[in-house]
Amino acid sequence: MKTNSVLPLLLFGAAGYASIAVAQLPGTFTPMVGMKMPRTGHTATLLSNGKVLIAGGIADPFGGPIATAEIYDPDRGFLPTGDMTAPRSHHTATLLPDGRVLLAGGDISAGGGLIPSNRADIYDPSTGTFAATGNMIRNHACHEANLLRNGKILIVGSYGGVTNAELYDPATGAFALTGQYTRIADLNVCQGAASSLLTDGRVLIIWQDSGAEIYDPGTGSFTPTGEPIQGGNNNGMPVATLLMNGRVLIAGGMSDGSYGPRAGLYDLSTGTFTGTGSTAIGRAFHTASLLPDGSVFLAGTIRWGDAPLADTELYDPVAGAFAPLAAMTTPSFAHTATLLNNGKLLIAGGVAFDGPTSRAELYSPTILVPAPRLFSPWHASTGEIASPASPAAIGEVLSMYTSSLSEGGLIPPRVAVGGRLAEILYFGSAPGYPGYYQVNFRLPGGIGAGPEVPVWLTYIGRHSNEVTIGVR
Fold this sequence. Notes:
The protein is an all-beta fold. Helix content is 3%, strand content 40%. The longest helix is centred in the N-terminal third of the chain and has 12 residues, at 7-18.
């Protein structure tokens, strides 16, 4: 790994940024002026500009899905934006490598009830508008979406008897069928599947009552894996969270009305599930958010025939234990939780005492870790900055430095160049520069040549600043 000769100058100019770490009381919540309207079954997507797109959902417990969307700006609060092309709830929203957002499927109103849809939209933050893209092959609602390393989006699970997964290709704007599930995937509950991208690029899917399997993007096929120790979840699924150590935390879930405190770990190296500490309370339709320090923040839960709860807790992967935190300001379930660039969590909407709510609040972890800060990439072979005067070539290996990764963490960052994901060849501590990290990547094909091709890095859902390189 060749050291960039201009790094000391770059680090000197950004030293103040990299050292930000604001101490907070653990587990504190701050209520805010809420969203423009109540929402549950909505999506919340952190955009590359640090704002959050809130889209769709249900605003009235006796009404159907809505088409409205809004933007959360950390400096200005909630602001209106364009409407989706059609009302929807229980859809997915995935940030694409070029900064746009794919919104796929979801419930729509039909015949006095709700049915899954195959429609999909693209949201463009530069214009604040939605536009239709290619339809899915099958109808999906209450499904899962994962951005793969090849830049495509994997769509898995749905109620209604869908037996195949689908892939969305941003380059063509089209969906295509991929492998058939090895398990029974006819779900009778929304959130009937949980999924997580693994550190090797494959995807773990845990089904409502029929075990788990792995999707391999290289072969486009599914294979069974170990059986979750929690058993069935026919009333509400756990949440699957990829940890910094490469394991997946499976927390919560409910079966036959039972809310027992349940949690387990999936180990990719062995393909098995093992136990870990129990959650402080039973949870379903909750959120589980990986924080930059490696812990996982869990919030809210449903209670059939009773009010939702405001309880929160923190999972420590080193100790393998959960610890209760202070309660949210509003009890809820089916809300969203979004890690912001400033290190706080935005909790928005969900179902409160009397139905969907517009409430919003911020959770402040003990230490606020900012989003990664990126520095100019250089040619790995020469150490020279990849500038307009010294452009990089497709397939060439480049290196760059960044901040705010996890020391020893196994989750690879993502690097987007010209709207295409790059192959990550190495990530780890920057030699001779404590607190900084080096990332080596291969310049992807399919990008246009130019003197200022955009590059940014994404880590645990948060975007770095944008830098540019010359490409020939």
